[in-house]
Write a structure and sequence with these properties.
Radius of gyration: 14 Å
Number of helices: 0
Number of strands: 11
Order of helices and strands: EEEEEEEEEEE
Helix content: under 10%
Length: 126
């Protein structure tokens, strides 16, 4: 069973919105840090946002400067799902978006995540 499955990508005009979902098949989902990264053609995988995991009532979120104020990461632990709400989209947001999960991560370091999804394409037209 694939541990992470992203959905919700598509084609949108600049200024529009999309919500990405990441359905997880992980034991103790609430304990995992969950993050979103993206990769544009010819570029390295880029950190977007991470929410911590510890099973408590408070989760902290970290964002890349390029998306701060436009994107929101949140999680539904009851349904083992991670979301990324993307508003005010720009053409430079065009990329394949991946969700990752890790037991202990450095938020911006993709190499510290244990699981990845297959990605979902987001294309923003100008």
């Amino acid at each position: 069973q694939v541990p992470l499955v992203e959905s919700g990508g598509g084609l949108v005009q600049a200024g529009g919105s999309l919500r990405l979902s990441c359905a997880a098949s992980l034991r103790t989902f609430s304990l995992y840090a969950m993050g979103w990264f993206r990769q544009a053609p010819g570029k390295e995988r880029e950190f977007i946002a991470t929410t911590t995991g510890h099973g408590g009532s408070t989760y902290y979120a970290y964002y890349a400067d390029s998306v701060k104020g436009r994107f929101t990461i949140y999680r539904d632990n009851a349904n083992d799902t991670l979301y990324l709400q993307m508003n005010s989209l720009k053409p430079e947001d065009t990329a394949v978006y991946y969700c990752g999960a890790g037991a202990s991560v450095r938020p911006k370091d993709a190499g510290t995540y244990d699981y990845w999804g297959q990605g979902t394409q987001v294309t923003v037209s100008s």
